[in-house]
Specification:
mainly alpha; 5 helices
Length: 98
Amino acid sequence: MIKPEKEKAIVELLKNPKFANMPSSQIAKLVGVADKTVTRIRKENKLMPDQIITADGKTRDSGRASTRRPNRDELEAQLQDIKAENEKLKNTLHHLSA
């Protein structure tokens, strides 16, 4: 458990555009906490950037897309698309076999 002041400082840094894309490990060093703590706070506050800028200036994917789970509406829309495509395939097969 970290002190509320440190958690507040992390959130403020993550909201700041100058620090938002900084790796969790670097923010952790600034505040004096573990990098996993910064990552947890990023996720809890939905402050995960699309990309991280590393200390040497390189850009890498933050993995945000892989950690985000689709919501119910998105899943239902995907299911409807699959059902519609399935129906089209059935009709095509029916016409080909006739």
